[in-house]
Design goal:
The chain is an alpha/beta fold and about 625 residues long. It folds into three domains: about 25-195, no CATH class; about 205-350, 2-Layer Sandwich (Alpha-Beta Plaits), CATH 3.30.70; about 385-400 and about 435-605, TIM Barrel, CATH 3.20.20.450. An eight-stranded mixed β-barrel has the order 8-9-11-12-13-14-15-16, surrounded by five helices. Strands 2-3-1-6-7 form a five-stranded mixed beta sheet, with helices on both faces. Strands 4-5 form a two-stranded antiparallel ribbon. Helix 4 runs antiparallel to helix 5 and helix 5 packs parallel to helix 7. It is elongated and about 85 Å long.
Length: about 625
């Protein structure tokens, strides 16, 4: 069974449903309608009695019984729709008994006793056994009519008809209200367990089924159960491109595809947004096969209205359902596995492991600590020198961020930059680095005003494409007093590839501020030569992967010779990264590369240490300048 629940059928009834989840409005409507019908019929009987010239005593009996019946209808309809306790049912016969006893003081005889018995019997059976209406009517009404024919009395006839009508009204009220209450309960349960858009089950149904399966698996663990969490890749892009209506159509289409791969007994639900889940019997290996079928099924484009066809992929996480497991815990484990699948490149399947739980917990802790650290000013800027290999003089520095973690000490960028980017805080972090770097560079200018000492700051993709990048750089330069020509902004090919057109426009705006632009990690991306030709770039930084093999790899030497020739032809400055040995310095300088940075010249150090080195005289020759 796929988690598709039919909507409950409406039950035709004389009694209408009122507002309110607890049925209060419906009970009030029942009370008023029941009382009105009994009262109206009683009035007709009174008029008939007057027309037939019924005795005053019999007329009073009609009025009394009608009043008691109306009161009984009101009380019965006002009661909750649950099964009525026996002691409450007995209240209504007792009321009529009291009325008949009072009546028997005035009118005595067989007719009064017969009418009292008939009224009580019919009313009691109508309240307790509404489905036996036909047999009860046949058994009790027929003898009463025979008796009435032998001892005719207008009062007896009026009472007889009135009692039958009271029984019909009250029994119908009770039976219809019970059916309506049952229907309303089933309808609410169905609504809670069904996703309105796709017709699949809901998250509530999933939790209930998981707990039932885990309880059953505790007795028989051989079969096992598994949960697949399916998250659509790029669903937001569909909403943004074609609109939310098209997104809803896509979700309905995906739900239809999921149903097509399930077996009887499997349950498919929509968890939230673009997340679906499949609960199935079987081990992890079987679940992996189902996950592969799901990916294959989703591989075909989904046809939308207005002729659109959308191809969608999914990342799937699989978690086993352990005996006694709670629904939320299993869903959490599957969500962790799904996250691992997305990290692996999307359109992938991953199985939950305990190590994944530990990694996710560490990541969540790191995210919280990053936010706190940003507010507390725990990020510092370290500086690595850029050296002219001909003179050994420092001509600039690259600003590199470090996180002084309160418990783990100084952390390198590789331990937190990716998380910072996914959190969306790179613009704030990059802003802090830019402010500190420009302020320090300006202060070092005062040490040696004649030295044109530049500082390079890395720019991430979120910063590059943010609308406030250029105004923020302009404001930082104005506030620090640093000339734009002494600021170098470094971007990687990966950043440019995200949107080359926008990147070119943004770099041109930055150059109008006097800022220079460096292409970082040159040679590690794609179409590097096209970028050199088309983008407003001033400096090319040769990636260390080309520098490291120098002296042992002739192909690396040939590549570097070509890069130097291209830079000279385009009048671009070159900086070699990752220089660590005197042999590499000699080769690079011989090729015509003038600038370099790396551990041979100095490791990244704090701003205070770097400022102290700047105050020393420039060393003669090519020697380390920062220990």
């Amino acid at each position: 069974m796929v988690g598709l629940l039919p909507a409950p059928e409406a039950t035709p009834s004389l009694w209408r449903d009122g507002p309110g989840a607890d049925g209060t409005g419906a009970r009030r409507a029942d009370a008023l309608l029941g009382a009105a019908l009994v009262g109206a019929f009683s009035l007709v009987m009174v008029i008939a009695a007057v027309v037939l010239q019924v005795a005053v005593t019999d007329l009073r009996a009609v009025v009394e019984v009608a009043a008691v019946a109306a009161a009984a209808a009101v009380v019965l309809a006002a009661l909750p729709s649950r099964r009525l306790p026996r002691w409450r049912l007995l209240c209504f016969p007792l009321l009529l008994v009291a009325a008949e006893v009072a009546l028997s003081v005035v009118t005595t005889g067989v007719s009064a006793a017969c009418t009292a018995f008939l009224t009580l019997a019919l009313l009691y059976l109508g309240l307790t056994q509404p489905r036996s209406a036909g047999p009860a009517f046949a058994v009790l009404v027929a003898p009463a009519w025979v008796l009435a024919q032998q001892q005719w009395s207008a009062g007896v006839a009026v009472r007889l008809v009135l009692a039958v009508f009271i029984w019909l009204v009250l029994s119908d009220v009770l039976s219809v209200r019970t059916a309506r209450g049952r229907m309303t309960t089933e309808h609410l349960i169905a609504q809670a367990n069904t996703d309105v858009l796709t017709g699949l089950g809901s998250r509530l149904l999933l939790s209930d089924r998981i707990e039932k399966l885990s309880a059953r698996d505790g007795a028989d663990e051989a079969d096992g159960s598994a949960l697949l969490l399916v998250d659509l890749d790029g669903f937001k892009a569909v909403n943004d491109t074609y609109g939310h209506a098209a997104g809803d159509e896509l979700l309905v289409g995906v739900a239809r595809r999921l149903r097509s791969v399930l077996r009887p007994g499997d349950v498919a639900v929509r968890v939230s947004g673009d997340e679906f889940a499949i609960l199935l019997r079987g081990d992890i290996a079987h679940a992996g096969g189902i996950a592969t079928r799901v990916l294959t099924s989703l591989g075909e484009p989904v046809a939308l209205s207005r002729g659109h066809r959308v191809a969608v992929t999914a990342s799937i996480g699989i978690a086993g359902v352990a005996p006694g497991a709670r629904g939320d815990d299993v869903l959490r484990d599957a969500d962790m596995a799904m996250y691992e699948a997305k990290q692996a490149g999307r359109n992938q399947v991953a199985v939950f492991e305990v190590s994944a739980h530990d990694r996710l917990r560490h990541r969540l802790e790191l995210e919280a600590q990053l936010r706190d650290g940003l507010e507390a000013g725990q990020f510092e800027v370290y500086f690595q020198p850029v050296v002219h290999m001909g003179t050994g003089a420092m001509v600039g520095a690259e600003a590199l961020v470090r996180w002084r973690h309160p418990h783990r000490g100084l952390l390198a960028p590789g331990e937190f930059l990716d998380v910072s980017e996914s959190l969306g805080i790179m613009d704030r972090l990059g802003g802090q680095v830019l402010d500190q770097a420009c302020a320090r560079a300006r202060s070092w200018q005062h040490v040696d005003p004649d030295r044109a000492f530049s500082v390079a700051v890395n720019v991430s993709a979120p910063e590059m494409f943010a609308d406030d990048l250029v105004p923020r750089v302009r404001a930082t330069l104005e506030h620090s007093g640093l000339p734009g020509s002494l600021l170098v902004l470094e971007i990687t090919e990966r950043v440019i590839m995200a949107d080359a057109t926008l990147a070119a426009r943004r770099l041109a705006e930055l150059r109008r501020l006097g800022v220079r632009v460096a292409l970082d990690d040159f040679g590690t991306g794609h179409s590097s030569l096209a970028y050199l030709r088309d983008l407003p770039i001033d400096i090319v930084k040769i990636d260390q992967s080309f520098v490291r093999p120098l002296g042992t790899d002739h192909q690396a030497l040939a590549l570097l010779r070509s890069i130097v020739g291209i830079a000279d032809a385009l009048t671009l400055d070159l900086i070699a990264e990752g220089v660590e040995t005197p042999a590499q310095v000699e080769i690079l300088h011989g090729l015509g590369c003038q600038l370099a940075q790396g551990f041979y010249f100095g490791r990244p150090v704090s701003a205070a240490e770097f400022g102290a080195y700047l105050q020393r005289p420039s060393p003669a020759g090519m020697a380390p300048v920062v220990p």
